[in-house]
Amino acid sequence: MVNVRDAASAVREWLQSEHLEARDVSDQQASLHLHVRYPPTKQGHVFNVVIPKNRNLVLVYSVTRVDDGQQKEMISHSQLESGGWEKWLHEIRIHLTQADLDWVLHVGKKEEGIPGPLQAFNLSRPIWFDGLTQNEFMHTMRHLWLTKLALIHKIKFRYGAGLGKPGPVDDWISKKAQSRDAQPQTHSEPTEISTDETGGFGRDFDPSEWV
Prior knowledge:
The protein is an alpha+beta fold. The chain is built from five helices and six strands. The chain has helices at residues 4-17, 68-80, 82-98, 134-159, 170-181, and strands spanning 22-24, 30-38, 45-52, 57-65, 102-107, 118-128. Strand 3 (45-52) and strand 4 (57-65) form a beta hairpin.
C-alpha cells in the first residue's frame, strides 16, 4: 500500500527524471504542493501537483486567466448575439466534460440575464494512490496540458490574441471581499481537496501563462 511519503518521493523522482522544473509551495492543507513547469520549455505553463492532507491521492491542476482584451471581445459578442455567446459557452462545457477531467469555468456576472465573459478556467484530475504510476502521472500532466492548449486555441481563434494582460475574475474578487469581512474562526482539519484558484504562481510566474 502506497503511503504519503512514498507517493511524494515517487512524484519528485518522476519529475526529475523528465527534467521538469518543480518548486515547493508552502501549503498548510497539503502534504506536498509543487509548482511544475510543463512542458519543459520556455513556453511551459505552471501546473500544481498536490497531495492534500488526509487524502490518498495526488491532484494535478492548472488555472488559466483569460486575457482582458479577449474578455472585452466576449462581451461584445454577447451584446450583439446573446444566443451565439451562450452556445459557445455551452460547447466549451461539453468539450471539457468529454475530456474526462474535472473543471471549473469562472464566468463574469450576468448583465440583463446574459452570462458575462469567460474570465478563468481550472482543469484538474486526481490520481488515487492505488493507481499511481509514472505512466499514469505523466499522462495526466500531458492530458491536462493538451486540453488546456485546445481551450486556449479555441479562445484565440474566436476572440483574438488579446492585449497581453489578464482580465478581472469576478469570483475571486467576491471571494477576497468575503474573506476580509469574515470573522476569524477555528476550523477542524480540512478533508476536502483545496484547489484555491487565487493561489500565487511564485516569483517565476510568466505572463505567457495567461491566454
